[in-house]
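Working notes for the structural subgroup meeting. M.R. asked for a predicted model of this chain before we commit to crystallization trials. I am recording the input and output together here so anyone reviewing the notebook later can reproduce the run.

Input as submitted:
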Amino acid sequence: MYVLHCVVYAIYRIYSTSHILEFCTMTLSDLVSKKYLPVRVGISQVYAKNVLATTNRFSRFLGRPAKLADFTEFNVATYLTNYRQHWSARSTNNQRQILFSLWQEAADLAETSAKLRELPRPRRIKKLKEDTERPRCWRKGQMRKLVAYLKTLDGEICGIPASTWWLSLILSIHWTSSRISSMMAVQSADYDGLGLLVRKQKNHRPQWHRLPRSCRRLIEATNPNSREMLWPCPWCMRTLWDKFREIVEAVGLPSKKGRRKLFHKLRRGTITYCAKADPVVAQKVAGHKDFSTTLNSYIDETVVRQKSAIDVLYDPLKPPRPKRKPDRPASSNEHLLYESRKPAFRIFG
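Returned structure, recorded in token form:
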């Protein structure tokens, strides 16, 4: 009997040790590919790609392949804080939700061993407050004021006239709806004389945009073949935003504090006026897989009027319209009465 107990205890220890080794050596990518995604029935491909992308970002942030033991409040909170500096609160909350789901899966796996019951569960990292303000863009008249002011700028930027540098950049964003970080990464070789190839995209899919002749002339006036970057910039991105804010305030355009209230308004304007013509074009230009993202985050409802209750409901304060009496059906002999009322004509010979 004692020998049997020893055998059972040895098997238990081997089983527990195998789980401990599995947990300690398993990376976050292994958890996602082997345990998390396979058991999610009916999961969308978009969500699966987002989970894998979040896993890779978390590993790059740590500087090594993330392990399950890296799920601590400090690591996750620091990662989300760093992510929030570059992206919106909504995107940060999406990252938080994915990491918390993976964290919960890791904690469930840790409970299979008594030694790993100390793995903390996600509880203290609060959800960020998202911006509930509806998207707004600059109208046609405001854009014309901005362009007129840019034409009056003096000085040079990396050997290029400041007016030409700013005009070509702002109009290229207007025609392509690209983000400012994407435009600043465009090289001179990406301009082929007809359009612009924007390689750095949020969805990691390069996109080619055709440009009108007026914008092409501005780009060609800067002699792009003589340098590597199409818009060489002597400033960091924060200084670039400050410079553009000075221009916007000098023109008198409405702009609140925040990075997404400046260059992003150009992107919203392009997407909004494309949606006014065709929502499919707006979604394609924005590069979104789901039109709800385009509608909720980019389209200005004051420009593109959506159908509302006023368009489909009745007004209780209006008096009812008087019922129209139906027309009397024509009699079969009415044409005879009409013929009898015709004036008589005499033919004189």
